[in-house]
Amino acid sequence: MDLFQELKTLGVDIDEALVRLGNNENLYKRLLGTFTKTIKSYYINPDFDCNNCTDTAEKAHAIKGVAGNLSITPVYEGYTQIVNLLRSNQPEQAKEVLNKILPIQNKIISCIEKYM
């Protein structure tokens, strides 16, 4: 199995992303490296402070954007929910979604790092 095949098994829509990038596989691979850096730079601790969610919402929005551009669908959908929940003042529900998405996110990151 190669990088793209394995990512597909994790729910990443490689075909959609490649169409968006003019079928440039090398560019997509470089951008996957950017995704891993974004996750590490904007990592959200599942025990984030519920009293001040502004920073957490901004981090989630950044991750959502990069994941969406690269069609990393499970991560995009999870962080979309997190952003919406934080913006509607529901941090506890956002934590629940974050705890569900982190294992998937970690598998995707591990997959990317394995092949890069």
SSE map:
Elements: H1 3-9, H2 14-20, H3 25-41, H4 54-69, H5 73-87, H6 91-115
Helix pairs in contact: 3-4, 4-5, 5-6
Describe the structure.
This protein has 116 residues and is an all-alpha fold. It is elongated. The protein has helices at residues 3-9, 14-20, 25-41, 54-69, 73-87, 91-115. Helix 3 runs antiparallel to helix 4 (54-69) and helix 4 (54-69) packs antiparallel against helix 5. It has one domain (3-115). The model has no long low-confidence stretch (mean pLDDT 95).
Fraction of residues in H or I helices: over 70%
Low-confidence stretches: none
Reading the helices and strands in chain order gives HHHHHH
Mean pLDDT: 95
Strand composition percent: under 5%
- Number of structural units classed as domains: 1
The DSSP helix count reads 6
Largest sheet: none
Distance between the termini: 14 Å
State the secondary-structure class.
Answer: mainly alpha
> Would you report the number of β strands?
0
Q: What would the principal axes of the Cα set say about the shape?
A: elongated
Please state the CA-atom Rg, rounded to the nearest Å: 14 Å
